[in-house]
């Protein structure tokens, strides 16, 4: 009011700008302008080798309920969770797991940790999975313990999958990819300063010498994050099963200029037809291969597969029958998904060229031990450090500490 009194007539003043004092949690923690070309990136998928694609189909679609979202390439199949109602034009493609057929022995090493999948009922899904040929790494805690429901299983090819209670904090069904690293600070610096990811949070388990950091794009609750785990500093054998992690970027040219300015070592890939920049390949401090793909090229590559995605079984009985069948719907041959009609013998030959010599003998998934932070003795109660971690994260709004 006029003169500062409360009874004067208020004047309408044009609003040209407002300074808001928001908490840090409400702001995009992108470490200022120096990461601006990268903050719109997203973690889009990972690719592994597998000796038997048919078994992977049974496991990921038949048991875990994923759609088959890509199968038009010989010797390759991709899985992902589609939103209810299917994929719509303009939506981002879902996070995907891709497996390529390998005719040689696969070694898993110790560097890759696991994929985390959220579910409404961990014990129930665990019981279904345990009736299959999956390897049991960690059983869920009993309801009487009052702890976060977590279980860890190994898929038919030996890759670990964590089953985590779904809650309002996680909107992405495949919410995390865990990588074991030998220098956490160096890894954080790479993913934050080179790839432009945010550091969502960190955790130090104390006695177990395990340190964790969760990094990613956007917000941890609605995106797939990377969980970086440090276990003592020794270099962990990477094996040959993990092939590449895919990041999608809306502007590949801006990403290239940004990486050049940072002095990063990378390889540029151009599209054969148009000659346009298509993808950039870099390696993190632990030699994990990371591929930044242009958004347009990535969406075009998945669009046909998403429109013709094969849904998972509609009921548990159908799922159990499917998982135990000799061949799931649409699958043929020795462990390979059916190829679309019209593919020639030339494509078939290409499918047999991906064999890679194994670096070390394949290790059973249970032998991950402290290198992956998971508990080997699944018959025993979870360690006290794990319980403390669960309680701590529950207080922070993320009841999912996984060792």
Q: How does this model look, in words?
A:
By secondary structure, the chain is of the alpha+beta class. The protein has a single domain (33-345, 354-395), classed as 2,3-Dihydroxybiphenyl 1,2-Dioxygenase, domain 1 (Roll), CATH 3.10.180.10. 21% of the residues lie in helices and 26% in strands. The protein has nine helices and 18 strands. It has an eight-stranded mixed beta sheet with strand order 2-3-4-1-13-16-15-14, sandwiched between helices. Strands 6-7-8-5-9-12-11-10 form an eight-stranded mixed beta sheet, with helices on one face. Strands 17-18 form a two-stranded antiparallel ribbon. It starts with 41 loop residues before the first strand and ends in an 8-residue tail after the last helix. GO terms for molecular function: lactoylglutathione lyase activity. Residues 365-388 have a biased composition (Acidic residues).
What's the layout of helices and strands?
Blueprint: E1 42-50, H1 53-63, E2 67-70, E3 76-80, E4 96-101, E5 112-119, H2 122-130, E6 135-138, E7 150-154, E8 160-165, E9 174-181, H3 184-194, E10 198-204, E11 211-216, E12 225-230, E13 242-249, H4 252-262, E14 267-270, E15 277-283, E16 289-294, H5 295-307, H6 316-323, E17 331-332, E18 336-337, H7 345-351, H8 369-372, H9 384-395
Parallel strand pairs: 1-4, 5-8, 9-12, 13-16
Antiparallel strand pairs: 1-13, 2-3, 3-4, 5-9, 6-7, 7-8, 10-11, 11-12, 14-15, 15-16, 17-18
Helix pairs in contact: 1-6
Pfam families: Glyoxalase
Region (Disordered): 308-403
Protein name: VOC domain-containing protein
